[in-house]
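Let's study a protein:

===
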Amino acid sequence: MRKSDVRVGGIYTDRKGALREVIDQGSHLMADSQVADKDGIRYRVLASLKGGDIGRESSMTRAGFVDWAVAEVATGEIETIKLASAGAQLARSLTQAQTAFMRTIEPGTPASTDIDCNRQEMRMVRTLVGKGIIVAAPVAMGRDQWFFKYQLTELGASLLAAIYEHGEE
């Protein structure tokens, strides 16, 4: 990527799950800076593996931004990258038991696919429903009902991919 490729309104990625939207550019952004390069970029974080950074705005030199950015992101890719970033972030926050449960799901299982489950796992499933990972789980089961079905959300499918891709334990 070249300095001339960066434009206001463009969304860029480091291909590690982060997205930044350029919201301003110019020398006025670096006026108080001690650096010699006054060609500045102001950006907003749209996705990050550190969830707390989302929405944060910051400024840096255009050269520094170009060093960080690998590519501009097409509009159709933005939500996919955001979802993958959120899934990876959530994977790091799961307990060992929650991760172990998620590993019982076949890698690559898409969202909205029915998954069979034993009633002994109902408590874990309810916990994951609360995290937005699973939907369509029953609220209650009959005394003689030993199995039920649930489905992954889009976030759940992204989380599952992150667990298998990155070996999250």
Summary: The chain has a mean pLDDT of 88. Residues 78-93 form the longest helix (16 residues). The chain has two domains: 3-73, 86-166. Residues 3-73 form one domain.
